[in-house]
Amino acid sequence: MDWTAKRLIGVVHLKALPGAPGYGGSMDEVCEAAVADAQAYAMGGADALMVENFGDVPFTRESVEAETVAGMAVAARAIQEAGIGLPMGINVLRNDVSSALGIAAACSGEFVRVNVHTGAVEADQGIIQGEAYSTMRKRAALCPGVQVWADVLVKHAVPIGDLGLAETAKDTFYRGKADALIVSGVATGAGTSVDDLRVVKESVPEAPLLVGSGASVETARELLEFADGLIVASALKRDGVLGNPVDARRVEELRRTMG
């Protein structure tokens, strides 16, 4: 990813996949919705897509099942075959970056997101520990060109220990070897603190820095004072409702605001 301009990454929230409690029984429907959202992001001027198994609640803190990996790969391939042409990343919730790397390798993904790359957090799935050691070795062996974007004190979780935001950011980038850092609010759609962004940017000035939640037309300019890009879904859905399809007009409005 070229960070010389501010980047807008649209999240494709996949409907529940096979094996998940909410699965509707049709991968065709999953793929049609994913392609429609991806097309809306492209029409509105997004720079990249992030495909995420958002509909698979509840999530596991360990490796996802084989059917989840298969479903995500099918959806990612459907987006590519639709000819949308945007760079694509993969996020396998809750923290299965190994599977994300596998999907990226098989589907020409350009980046993956990992919620907990270093350290440990307590989340609704229990204790989640970073696996930077194995992640970066698998990336090197399987798909060395795929970037690893890592959250710093990820949303929907609290850190174990008192390292602090600045030191966690340094560990994630310098010791964990992440390619970009993500800072978010406390939950999906929750606003990201400008002060948190400033702390991370001042601590690791050379790291590309992304906003992971809560960005909108109203907050974009302030957030981009320190951030290099926005990862957005909720604010770009029809009527701003998380469960609705992506609205290309909302994407275009945010893109214009970003400059």
Structure summarized in a few sentences:
The chain is an alpha/beta fold and 259 residues long. It has 8 helices and 11 strands. Helix 1 (27-44) runs parallel beside helix 8 and helix 2 runs parallel beside helix 3 (97-106).
Summarize the structure in words.
This protein is α/β, with parallel strands linked by helices and 259 residues long. The chain has one domain: Aldolase class I (TIM Barrel, Alpha-Beta Barrel). Helix content is 35%, strand content 18%. The protein has 8 helices and 11 strands. It has an 8-stranded parallel β-barrel with strand order 1-2-3-4-7-9-10-11, surrounded by 6 helices. A 3-stranded antiparallel beta sheet has the order 6-5-8, with no helix packed on it. The chain is globular, with a radius of gyration of 17 Å. It starts with 6 loop residues before the first strand and ends with a helix.
